[in-house]
Amino acid sequence: MSHESNRDDYLTPDQMLDKLRSCFAPLRCEADLLEDGARVDFRIFDGEERLMRAEGTPTIHLCNPQGFQDITGTARQMLASRGYRLDPIA
Question: The pTM is what?
Answer without folding.
Answer: 0.85
